[in-house]
From TrEMBL:
Zn(2+) binds at H72, H202, H206. It comes from Rhodococcus xishaensis. This is Hemolysin III family protein. InterPro entries: AdipoR/HlyIII-related, Hy-lIII. It comes from the Bacteria. Keywords: Cell membrane, Membrane, Metal-binding, Transmembrane, Transmembrane helix, Zinc.
Length: 226
């Protein structure tokens, strides 16, 4: 394996856009600092429950960006290595969705409702991981609807979330959800692709996920300290 760059040009191997993976690399730096701060404050100023919820959330956010950066910034020279990283990359999306819902389930919903939502998203996420691990080359029309279905699992409990946590977290969740959904559509359609050597269709997908992650981080912060 090599980091994308001159070695790939010299070898004649396909070259990804120069920006491939950088958006998530920068997001990893920001997410790591923000997550450590959030977790420390949650344990110190709130409760162990809040600390654990934010730790799960932070681990999945940083895990998503770390695996994505590794997968996209390195040129994998064997099909086996690339397939393993593709499995990990796509699986982390499911775990990230479940991790993002964890603080809302534990801190912003009535106990019974929160337990149901937490069970649904984590069972769904683990099922998604099994799918990606066992069928890494599944068509995009198989994986994308599952991401969207799991990502919008909050809809049935939206009223209770507003009642418990207020309007702002739900609005931020919805805005982030829209960006994630738009990103999923761009991923599925491979559009737009205006600068394929520099900033291709996948970079638009990564940009959408980074913006959505920021929206959801603010929502989690409001739930923990609101």
């Amino acid at each position: 394996m090599t980091v994308l760059g001159l070695d790939d040009l010299a070898s004649g191997l396909p070259v990804k856009p120069r920006m491939r993976g950088w958006i998530h690399a920068w997001s990893l730096v920001v997410a790591s600092i923000a997550s450590v701060t959030l977790i420390a404050l949650a344990f110190t100023l709130e409760s162990a429950r809040a600390g654990i919820a934010t730790a799960v959330y932070g681990a999945t956010v940083c895990g998503l960006f770390a695996v994505s950066t590794t997968y996209h910034r390195i040129h994998w020279h064997t099909v086996e290595a690339r397939t393993r990283m593709k499995r990990a990359d796509h699986s982390m999306i499911f775990l990230f969705i479940a991790g993002s819902y964890t603080p809302f389930s534990l801190l912003a919903l009535p106990p019974n409702t929160g337990a149901i939502l937490l069970t649904v998203v984590w069972v769904g996420a683990l099922a998604g991981v099994v799918l990606k691990m066992s069928w890494p080359h599944a068509p995009r029309w198989v994986g994308v609807p599952l991401y969207l279905l799991l990502g919008w699992a909050v809809v049935p409990v939206a009223g209770e979330l507003v009642h418990q946590a207020g309007v702002a977290p739900l609005v931020l969740l919805a805005v982030g959800g829209v960006f994630y959904s738009v990103g999923a559509v761009l991923y599925a359609t491979k559009w737009p692709n205006p600068w394929p050597r520099t900033f291709g269709h996948h970079e638009f997908f990564h940009a959408a996920t980074a913006i959505a992650a920021l929206c959801h981080f603010i929502a989690v912060y409001l739930v923990v300290f609101g």
